[in-house]
Amino acid sequence: MTIVDLSDISVEMFVTVMLFLLLIAPLVSLGILRLFQGKKKIGFGLIGGGVLVYLVFQTVMLLIN
To answer: Is the pTM higher than 0.85?
Structure first.
């Protein structure tokens, strides 16, 4: 087993990645669930919201680095 060195990760990047995991993944998952339930408008809206948050995430990551 190897030990991963996390000292290179800044606090800003850690918080940004955590927000990414707490926002984008649930939005896309709920969107797919709603599509399977037959609620297409809500499903596509949630997936679109996930894509929008992803684009904001990419913009913030470019500004941090």
So the answer is: no
